[in-house]
């Protein structure tokens, strides 16, 4: 008899969770992405003890139909793609159908949802299995609570940094969502204190001023341009506002926050010699393109992307930044000593 066995889903989901759910921030990211994909305009995230005790995300989106409640925790089950063609034309933030299966395998999850504005339903999931299903009071939309994250994976729990650091990471991802979707009203509540509250009025400058402060907001300039394949818009801070790391540079492709070495290089080339060595700008840039030109299926967290026609996009970005800085005469003035 052979020795190979197919793993039970409760184990294979935990293995997948190891990649997708690294810390409370990853749970917040996945739940908020789902809320955005559901068409929500108001999204509230509440955390207790930096999310290690509890994370609750409430949205006013589509809600979930009764039949789907059974399927939403199954790995590779998704409402967002169906076939090969869809996989190469992704417009939603999610598509892998593995976040909820992963989260549910390392925590205790409750979903309360209302799909038709009338009947609310609740399910409780422990170790990936539905343990309770009832009718419940609910408003249109969905509320997902994740409790006792990593209760059954002690090694992962041990690896968590201080509550302060974990909360900082959650704040960070929420700020990226606010810059990525300024039309959505986001709130972050930590241990009953409101930490972040965006207006959702679509004003990027206002969103950035809440995140980076008034001083930066007053010194932001808009960039805007396109080539055949790419459209680039955004706000860049004048070169005198530099930072010691790349953290303050946010790049979004079709709404998704991404990290990309070559595009970062193009931005720095745009500023050219105006940035002192080891200093980086503050900016938020939105790139819109045909989803067929970007492969987001590179890494489970979907932050890494591969781009077709990358050089074209790089030169558009550096050109736009360069033009703006010279055109507006934004070069910091060096005082001459007499
Ligand atoms: P994916 O987002 O890749 O499809 P997930 O595991 O994150 O996979 O979610 C599984 C499915 O559950 C989604 O495809 C969606 O249909 C449904 N879902 C999850 N969260 C929400 C939500 N907040 N509102 C509506 N539907 C949701
Ligand atoms: Mg998802």
Summary of the model, kept short:
GO terms for molecular function: endonuclease activity. By secondary structure, the protein is α+β, with helices and mostly antiparallel strands. It has helices at 9-20, 24-37, 66-71, 84-87, 99-105, 154-158, 163-180, 204-212, 214-218, 261-271, 310-327; strands at 42-48, 54-59, 108-114, 120-126, 129-135, 141-147, 185-190, 193-197, 220-226, 230-237, 242-243, 249-253, 256-258, 280-281, 283-289, 294-295, 306-307.
Please give the CATH class of the largest domain: Alpha Beta
Give the overall form: globular
Small-molecule binders here are: adenosine-5'-diphosphate, magnesium ion
- Biggest sheet descriptor: 8 strands, mixed
Please tally the β strands and state the result.
17
Mean pLDDT: 93
At the fourth level of CATH, the homologous superfamily of the largest domain is: Histidine kinase-like ATPase, C-terminal domain
What order do the strands of the largest sheet run in, or round the barrel if closed?
5-4-3-6-2-1-7-8
